Amino acid sequence: MFSLRNEMKTMEIFEASLKSIEIQENIKTHQIGISDFLLENYCDFVHISLARTDNAFSGWIVHDLEDVDEDEEDQERITVGDTVFQHFIKEGSQLRLYHENRIIGALHLLRYLFEIFSGPIEYSRFINGTIPTEKTSNFLIDIYRLNSVKECEHVTIFEKGMSSKSMMDEVLDLATGLKRFDLRCTLPDDWKNPKILKLDTLICWPAEWFTTTDLLTTLDCQCASINETNLKWQSFKAFMLKWQMTENTRLKWLEISFDGNWEGFNSDGLNAKEWNPADRDSHHPDLLEKPGSNWQNCKFATDIQRNHDGVLASFWRRENSFHFVVWHDPHPIATLQPDPRLLVKLEEDQFLSSSEDEDEEEEEEEED
Question: Given pLDDT bands bounded at 50, 70 and 90, which one contains residue 358?
């Protein structure tokens, strides 16, 4: 009889499931979840990695049958679900499998894995190490038809993961549970799909497809980091002026990088002001969960206020980026009580405050 232990890796559970139908069915009843699912597709193999807890990965590497070493005398078959793999090699927590068609074999294997690991997937990541083709596109789309993957809330698709606009649209249609999307694929400048701009959290680059119209009318994320756009600073000022006039209660955090500069920027019409400790805290939680920093120093940011409810937002500028934080809770330090060591003070030269710009302009005028 199968007994699930907390320290069991996914490979141990998988191997137990192959012993009998009874054990397989018993494993399914536990609704075992996956903390991290990583799929890597390369020119000669597919690598599937699953972890129940952080970094405790087991891996399945699927090769084409023709790649079996000719010196392998004893080829041993293994049946996984209803799929026969003509040969396998066990290497610790890794299992190499050989199938007539590695893509078909990998898809059948995934179907079986997500039948026995029937709980939710916390994070899914996809790496395509080959030139995107229709074959690789269909493979990813077929994976997204698996219920566990459809319902995954946190997804990363790395470079070369998308081969066309239609593929991206189909993935967004299938990903019914998607809340946080980290997209690192190049898409055509004319690509449009409002679904991507309504997720809770969006991280994407390059994003040359993201326009001023998207910023002003379509963007409806809670948190977004949109990189390598073709926007100008005028778009960011228009966004802030519009934010002051709207009743948007969803946006919390926005950062956008762009191929341009801040020459000519001014805060006219924004009623901007410097930080006042009575109005808000000096630091805000980093809602994009950047490695190494859980809080963002906003002491040197510039504040603006929304007209109808008085909610504050802070913005700051770096050389080629715009940053905007809404203070739904003006005193998050008191609310969350972080370790004071996390509140790392950022250097003043990381920010281009409005007052610094004005000082520079005055100096230039004096020189003239």
Answer: low
| Nearest by Cα to 193 from 156, 154, 220 | 220
Q: What are the extents of the domains in the chain?
A: 186-368
- Three-state SS sequence of the chain: CCCCCCCCCHHHHHHHHCCCHHHHHHHHHCCCCEEEEEEEECCCEEEEEEECCCCCEEEEEEEEHHHCCCCCCCCCCEEECCEEECEEEEECCEEEEEECCHHHHHHHHHHHHHHHCCCCEEEEEEEECCCCCHHHHHHHHHHHCCHHHHCCCEEEECCCCCCCHHHHHHHHHHCCCCCEEEECCCCCCCCCCHHHHHCCEEEECCCCCCCHHHHHHHCCCCEEEEEEECCCHHHHHHHHHHHHHCCCCCCCEEEEEECCCCCCCCCCCCCCECCCCCCCCCEEECCCCCCCCCEEECCCCEEEECCCCCCEEEEEEECCEEEEEECCCCCHHHHHCCCHHHCCCCCHHHCCCHHHHHHHHHHHHHHC
Place of tokens 């990965």: 57
* Residue 250 confidence (pLDDT) above 90: yes
User: What digits encode the pLDDT tens for the residues 208-218?
Assistant: 999 999 999 99
Residue 2's pLDDT is 79
| Pick from 308, 186, 198, 328: nearest CA to 252 | 328
Band (pLDDT 50/70/90 cuts) for residue 72 is low
Please answer whether residues 164 and 133 qualify as being in contact, where contact means their C-beta atoms are separated by less than 8 angstroms.
Answer: no
Condensed to tens digits (0 to 9), the pLDDT of residues 251-263 reads: 999 999 999 899 9
User: Does residue 70 have a pLDDT over 90?
Assistant: no
Question: Would the pTM count as exceeding 0.90?
Answer: no
Which residues make Cβ contacts (< 8 Å) with residue 32, sequence separation at least 6? 4, 13, 52, 116, 117, 118, 119
Instruction: Note the pLDDT of residue 298.
Output: 92
What pairing do the DSSP bridges indicate for beta strands 201-204 and 180-183?
Answer: parallel
Closest CA to 204 of 152, 150, 254: 254
